[in-house]
């Protein structure tokens, strides 16, 4: 049901965003799910019939959006079978909120989140994205905070000058503009927290230097938001590429406990997967370099070899746009054979661990396979093996 409602919301939303909200229902053990979008919306007369079989709000022969019109009808039946109810609230041009409520028994051993008490706490949210700012304001209000939301840095600076704020939450693009406009240390806000994408972590040292006291990675997790608004030092757990590797956790050693730090090429087109791999490898005491596709991986391998600093290990994602991991592996192996070089250790990264997938990787010249998402201990074992091979 969530997949259907969320995919519909994305399909009918060209500008703005989509939010999935989960909250307690009115009855005991009831859970309410809401999927909200800023899309085209529905006319009042269309809101009832979209739950019928083969019905769409736009029934014309020239309708813009395709589909069979069965998804909402099936969702309604599933909700009914679960003793629940489904509804829609919408206006044309103002988006739609589809919601359903179902009774769900508490899970055994469920962890209870203890919400912080933010009564008498004033929070200013500065974000251009309506969905993100609304979700933050909603969560903070549930915890008792007084919130104000503005969409531009000029309005934010004006509000900051008028009164004291316990916390300022500002999206990174607007944070840069605020820094250009004023001295953040002079603004009356106890906590100044910047909202960043995972790929913007490298900006954190400069943001800290310019007056921000903490950060949150988008999408913002409830537990992280609570921690940032109560922690004394909100920069204390910065990413490893910011604070430096944890040398006590280095996997590769020379047999005497001395970390040697492998030079590792990571070929991965997914930004989040690349970020996680880089963070994990750095925490394990190594030096990762990320290439975003097969072509870039081959070029990076060749450049390191030409500079006399070849990689100790290549972690090659199998599925990448353009030149995939198998093609890239063949290119590297062919170049090594032609030059008479010692083959670099190369491991495939793939979510598919079937025998035919493993055979394809080995046939392309790879030495083994690691299954995604990366398991820390399996990765550590692979790195230890490479380190031992180099030391031999």
Unreliable residue stretches: 59-69, 237-259
* Percentage of residues in strands: 15-25%
Query: What sequence of helices (H) and strands (E) makes up the elements?
Result: HEEHHEEEHEHEHEHEHHEHEHEHEHEH
Q: Could you give a short account of the major beta sheet?
A: 5 strands, parallel
Number of folding domains? 3
Physical arrangement of strands within the biggest beta sheet: 6-5-7-8-9
CATH topology of the largest domain: Rossmann fold
CATH class of the largest domain reads Alpha Beta
Distance between the termini: 56 Å
Structural class: alpha/beta
CATH architecture title of the largest domain = 3-Layer(aba) Sandwich
Give an overview of the whole structure:
This protein has 392 residues and is α/β, with parallel strands linked by helices. The strands form three sheets. The chain has a five-stranded parallel β-sheet with strand order 6-5-7-8-9, sandwiched between helices. Strands 11-10-12-13-14 form a five-stranded parallel β-sheet, sandwiched between helices. It has 14 helices and 14 strands. The model is unreliable at 59-69 and 237-259 (pLDDT under 50). The relative contact order is 0.07. β8, α7 (204-209) and β9 (214-217) form a beta-alpha-beta unit. The longest helix has 16 residues, at 376-391.
